[in-house]
Design brief:
heterodimer, A: mainly alpha, MetI-like fold, 12 helices, globular, B: MetI-like fold, 13 helices, cell membrane (chain A), dipeptide transmembrane transporter activity (chain A), membrane (chain A), BPD_transp_1_N (chain A)
Chain lengths: 317, 308
């Protein structure tokens, strides 16, 4: 097992390096000079050269990448142009809020997704299956930013039950686990949960259908095991894949939270990204994307290891 | 990397079972195969319904200048935010007093263009790269597939927004960003199917008989690979529609006053307390288009017997 983990890390390392390279080059994709956002329009050529040297932009690209990577490895993501504060501090403040939102959404989506998936898988081609499949198609097809707006219209504008935006009362910058803050979490979390719900219910439906057709299920029934006993075996067989999908969905939601966070003004990484893009705060943009992508790479690694540990059928090659 | 699947791929690709190869391989019989796919598709009421909806939306967008009752750009400050069912503005008017029906019809043009084009471009680039990687093998495969792995390490929404954000707002930049998101996904599917086909006896036979690699790919590989890759690509259109409108919603795609569903949804957000139904309409169009493409793609998949 330890050997497998080491191998898997050895595989993830070059990917992580590639991800850092993409993040680094992203800033150089930007039209014009990376400095154009800071420099005044009427800056003299001399001033420009000075700034370029100060930021290290006068060196060749591979050297710049090396210096940048060295700093990143030491936890220095540079300073935000807009606020002047270290990028790492800004991102770590936001990432907690995003994680709470993404984890709640994944939990809701996983609960309902597995429920619908099991119902549909057990009752193949019945009306229950059709309802569950419709829910799944809805989940993967609905533009979630629109769903968020619709939920705000219904539950905030019309019924007045839940707050429409923010993470807490009086523009609270951080989410806190109490009842008042929980009311702020409901709408964005439910909005986000439809994606994992659709994906997980589709996967579980297919899994359960396959498992029920296997010989061992017939054998269990033939030896007189109760339907509940058979169900336990089905759950055990479906669990590793379902859990792996759930882990990946958490990563997708965390990386893709920008649209929902914008709709609900949720003070997370998506909101930070939005600000970075429109203020052309390139170090902040670069740092946020790097942190999110690295989180995703790590999560992938973790999911692989957990799945292998849970599922004896996967060879630890 | 067995578990780094996108949400779509997780359900869509897995080990792709080949289409009935005996039917699909030769050119003459290929027509028969596609004919049978179409007749199976025609018997699927859900897929046909979805297809008709898409056809209507596409036709409405193309003929928008003929059927739109009003100028989509001409507003009126005294007739702002009329309700649905209004005598002049059938679907109401927007925050600048422009006719919603006309704008929704016109918006279909940019929304469909920006949603579908990236998948089409990515289909060609991705199939090309995937077949090259799968057929050539060796270091070519390693090079292409490791680069693909790196792009897979970004969640698609994040990658699309990061690229658009760095490149700057605009229709062209949005299309480029979305294409970059889909190329790795299609490449991975094309590669895995090509590797399967490459090991088959008839491909081996063609190679041994001295046929040029290009000829083998053209005659033996292409017909078998493009089917599954095509089905997979159609399943991406729904995601692409949502993402393209999402970019405009964020202000990274189409710029005002151009009508586009995602952008309209954004500018109408201020009206959700005054006229919620009108504010929600552009999203209904995105949803309708996206779910129709999903259902049509599902129908196409089962008609081609590319099982999940």
């Amino acid at each position: 097992m330890i050997l497998f983990i080491l191998k898997r890390i050895g595989y993830a390392a070059p990917v992580a390096l590639g991800v850092s390279l993409v993040c680094f080059l992203l800033v150089h994709l930007a039209p014009g000079d990376p400095l154009s956002a800071i420099l005044p329009v009427d800056a003299t050529a001399e001033m420009q050269a000075q700034m370029r040297a100060a930021y290290g932009f006068d060196k060749p690209l591979p050297v710049q990448y090396g210096i940048w990577l060295w700093k990143v490895l030491h936890g220095d993501l540079g300073n935000s142009i807009a606020t002047g504060r270290p990028v790492l501090a800004e991102v770590s403040r936001a990432v907690g809020n995003s994680l709470i939102l993404a984890a709640s959404a994944t939990l809701i989506g996983f609960t309902f997704g597995t429920f619908f998936g099991f119902v549909a898988g057990y009752a193949r081609d019945s009306w229950l299956d059709r309802v569950a499949s419709a829910v799944a198609v809805f989940g993967v097809s609905v533009p979630h930013y629109w769903l968020g707006i619709v939920l705000v219209i219904i539950f905030s504008a019309n019924l007045g039950w839940l707050p429409p935006t923010g993470a807490g009362p009086q523009g609270s910058g951080n989410w806190w686990p109490d009842l008042e803050h929980l009311r702020y979490l409901v709408l964005p979390a439910v909005t986000m949960s439809v994606i994992p719900m659709g994906v997980i219910s589709r996967t579980v439906r297919a899994l359960v259908g396959d498992i029920l057709h296997q010989d061992f299920v017939q054998a269990l029934r033939a030896k007189g095991l109760s339907e509940f006993g058979v169900f336990r075996h089905v759950v055990k067989n479906a669990a590793p894949t379902a859990i792996a999908i759930m882990g990946l969905q958490l990563g997708y939601l965390l990386g893709g939270s920008i649209l929902v966070e914008t709709v609900f003004a949720w003070p997370g990484t998506g909101f930070l990204l939005n600000a970075a893009i429109f203020q052309r705060d390139l170090p902040l943009l670069q740092g946020t994307i790097l942190v999110l992508a690295m989180f995703f790479v790590t999560l992938n690694l973790l999911v692989d290891v957990v799945q292998t540990a849970l599922d004896p059928r996967i060879e630890r090659a | 990397m067995t578990t780094t699947l996108t949400p779509v791929e997780a359900t869509a690709s897995a080990p792709l079972p080949p289409v009935d190869l005996a039917e699909a391989a030769p050119v003459q019989a290929g027509r028969g195969y596609w004919g049978s796919v179409l007749s199976r598709l025609a018997r699927d009421p859900v897929a046909m319904g979805a297809g008709i909806v898409i056809l209507c939306i596409v036709l409405a967008a193309i003929f928008a200048p003929l059927i739109a009752p009003m100028d989509p750009f001409k507003g009126s400050m005294v007739r702002r935010l009329r309700h649905v069912g209004d005598a002049t503005y059938w679907l109401g008017s927007d925050e600048l007093g422009r006719d919603m029906l006309s704008r929704l019809l016109y918006a279909g043009r940019l929304s469909l263009f920006m949603g579908v084009l990236p998948v089409i471009i990515a289909f060609f680039i991705g199939s090309g790269l995937g077949i090259l990687a799968g057929y050539a093998g060796g270091w070519v495969n390693t090079l292409i597939m490791r680069v693909v792995d790196v792009f897979f390490a970004f969640p698609s929404v994040l990658l699309a927004i990061a690229l658009s954000g760095a490149l700057g707002a605009g229709i062209l930049n949005a299309i480029v960003s979305l294409t970059v998101v889909f190329v790795p996904q299609i490449t991975r599917v094309a590669e895995s199917v090509t590797v399967q086909i490459r090991g088959r006896d008839y491909v081996e036979a063609a190679r041994v008989s001295g046929a040029h690699p290009v000829t083998v790919v053209r005659v033996q590989v292409l017909g078998n690979v493009l089917g599954p890759v095509f089905v997979y690509s159609t399943s991406l259109i729904s995601v692409s529609m949502i993402l393209a409108s999402g970019l405009s919603f964020l202000g990274l795609g189409v710029k005002p006053p151009e009508p586009e569903w995602g952008l309209m949804l954004n500018t109408l957000r201020t009206a959700i307390y005054v006229n919620p139904l009108v504010a929600a309409l552009p999203g209904v169009m995105i949803f309708l288009t996206s779910i129709s493409f999903n259902l049509l793609s599902d129908g196409l998949r089962s008609a081609m017997e590319v099982r999940q």
